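Marked as duplicate of an earlier ticket. Keeping the data here for the record.
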Amino acid sequence: MNRTKFVTTAAIAVGSILAIAPAFAQTNMTGEAGRAQQLVGDATTTVQQIKSDPHFDDLLKQAKGVVIMPNLVKGAFVVGGEGAQAVLLKHHSDGSWSNPAFLTIGSISLGAQAGGEAGPAAMILMTDKALNDFAQTNDFSLNANAGLTIVNDAKQDQAQVGHGDIVLWSNQGGAFAGADISAADVKQNSDEDRAYYGKRIDAMQILGGQADQAHAEKLKSALPT
């Protein structure tokens, strides 16, 4: 092959790669956006389950925000140890809810009392401190240093609810009461945020109304005002 033909062939090959690359990127983005939309859809179903208990429905009405983990519990393990996906929404003073910001929750452990059950869980944020910690910090741990009071089972410890920053809910009833989230790592999932909203944006901007997504309306309207 002479030099001219080699250069021409190489140029065509490079051009083909550059032409294909955006298509791969678009396919990847579509996949991420689809997963984000599925998570929001599953979160909507979870909200309906939470609201079926009048006590937790009332807590949502009083809450400053909520972290919904639609697929947390599987078997005797918690998916959080592998990086459970979650959405965070802020409850505005006018009763409306923000669009969801995406989080990854890790390092949660659960005792064997969960058995072979599977189901979602949620952290109902009852104070501004709890909401701000989730929204403003990109990576933090729910340990003693966080200064947050966590109530594992509101139905059994209703006297504590008024003093708790976070109230845990699970459709497995008392099973999740044994969950240890004291070492849970909370990270903002910027990739999911970008895939869902189509631009680079952080949790504070999302909760502050700087992004909109019609797909989230069903979730927002499912939450009690």
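See parent ticket for discussion. The first strand starts at residue 65 and ends at 74.
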